[in-house]
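Figure-free illustration: sequence to structure, shown twice.
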Amino acid sequence: MADKVAGSRSGLNVGVQAVAAVVLVAGVAGGIRGLSRILPGGEDSGGQVTCSDAHGTPPPKRVSGAQLCQALNRSDLPVLLGTPDEPVRTADGDDNWMTVDGTRMASPEANVTLQTYSVKLSASDDRFSVSQGLDLLPQAQPRQILGHPAVLYSDRTTALTLDSGKAGSGSGGVARSLLVSKDAKEGGGSFEITIWRQDDVVPDDAALFRVAELVLPTVPGWKSG
């Protein structure tokens, strides 16, 4: 689920007096973390950015944040997003954990940012059925991705600002997400891809589907057929 920072979530330029970024946040602390990762940390490398070292402890026998980053950080990602002239700025993975009903579960994710778009790929092994998302997720619509049940839905981003060391927030734009079952029969677990823009323009659903259809089959744990 999209409940954590979705920005390519390195340090803030101390010379910056007023900056802004758009992130998908669940709280202020997470938002500030996401802001620091969205902002470019130095000169443009001029080439493909490699995934940074993953944060957190990877789950045993489960897909890790590093593996999600490797799958998402494709050389053709800018083309899939419809922004072929924009190089990837940042790419990294996180090995997060969450506790649901007393059970601690892995919640790895990867984030990649470009000038226009940010993309998040996450994985979940919870018992949440993708079809349940039709009732629980905002503006949810049933879809299929390569024969797998999926749900397309919208969420809101938050615009974060940092002015002379003071953080603030305001209303952002729309994020579009695809929640996709790991197998064709909803046997358990899901992947989620979220895209949003660094302006108020609604993301291109066609770009979201292009990314999902090419990235998901390369992720460990995806079951074809």
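We now fold a second protein in the same way, so the two outputs can be compared directly.
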Amino acid sequence: MRIALFEPEIAGNVGAVLRLGACLGAAVDLIEPMGFEWDDRRVRRAAMDYIDHVSVTRHADFAAFRAASGTRRLVLFTTKSQESIYDFSFRPDDVLLFGKESAGVPAEIAEACDARVRIPMRPEVRSMNLAMTAALALGEGLRQTASLPG
């Protein structure tokens, strides 16, 4: 299972997702452009030494990312979906896609995905933090597929 971040804007979120990937054994795809410089010290600070334990692939744009993904199923996490991640059946080779912090993904990117799911939350709030969402999503996907480490 892989995590993909579409045009992430906040270095600290990317660092936290890299640490998550290192701890749970998930590779991370970063779809550019990003809202910060890759050598930004905040990424390394958030990921700490875990950055050396995760496979990171940077893609110039969504088309390059999609081409590199091959036949893997692309599962978009969006507040606009009605399907809960707890009712969805994950596969071990799924790519879990998360949109940019300020705007999610454009409609054409959402349409290019194989599935769209959401994490249920209280109606009076808008969304969760990107890294928190990735952690919940990856944890559920790995749990369902009996792929949790150790």
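Summary for the second example: The chain has one domain: 2-144.
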